[in-house]
Design a protein that fits this description.
two-stranded antiparallel sheet, single chain, extended, 4 strands, mainly alpha, 2 domains, 39% helix
């Protein structure tokens, strides 16, 4: 449910970012907050999806055997989440101060200060993402291109918005080219995360004087 909520708000923010809005609907002062809230939601969806994928396969179905089935075993505790997501967060924090930016209350800062901090976050986090994912646009053309989507279109390649009526083919205009990756090489660790442990993402930095 949390992933669906985050995806919904990410879609709303992407619409505010891409669609032409009436003048004055979105104040200029809200633009930095909108952009980085969208980035935070997108990262949350990626990390949450990775944790769900690592949760382990479902239990196999009981064998169809003429012998009586044994009594059901006590439910097993879910396996601890994989540590790759924490390592990825650690690198985003180390290179781009990502968690510092998200956890800080930036409402007290002026727009130039937020813009200056966002440049550091953008450059560092972009470098980390490019290291582990080979990201490229799904649509090879430009935004504004007219496309036709028929029944043979690859599932998941298109998300139709607007007045979607009837059956394909649909004709529309590209408002976002989408993103895809041909590489997912997450950082590896040698042991799983202990739910009862400290699970430190970034250690405390102490300057010795």
């Amino acid at each position: 449910m949390a992933i669906l909520i985050a995806a919904f708000f990410a879609f709303v923010l992407s619409a505010l970012f891409l669609l032409p809005l009436p003048e004055g609907l979105l104040p200029a002062a809200a633009v930095p907050y909108r952009d980085f809230l969208f980035m935070a939601l997108s990262l949350f969806i990626v990390v949450a999806s990775l944790l769900r994928r690592r949760a382990g396969p479902a239990e196999a179905a009981a064998p169809t055997s003429p012998t009586p089935s044994p009594p059901p075993a006590a439910p097993k505790e879910p396996p601890p989440p994989a540590g790759e997501a924490l390592v990825l967060l650690s690198l985003l924090q180390e290179k781009g101060r990502f968690l510092d930016f998200l956890m800080e209350d930036i409402t007290a800062y002026k727009d130039p200060q937020v813009a200056a901090a966002s440049r550091v976050v953008h450059q560092g986090c972009s470098a980390v993402i490019r290291e582990f994912l080979d990201v490229s646009p799904v649509h090879e053309g430009k935004e504004g291109d007219r496309v036709s989507i028929d029944k043979s279109a690859e599932p998941g390649r298109y998300r139709m918005v607007g007045k979607v009526l009837g059956e394909p083919p649909y004709a529309g205009v590209v408002i976002h080219r989408g993103w895809k990756t041909t590489k997912l090489a997450l950082p590896r660790i040698t042991r799983p995360v202990d739910p009862a442990g400290p699970n430190t993402i970034t250690p405390v930095e102490v300057e010795i004087r």
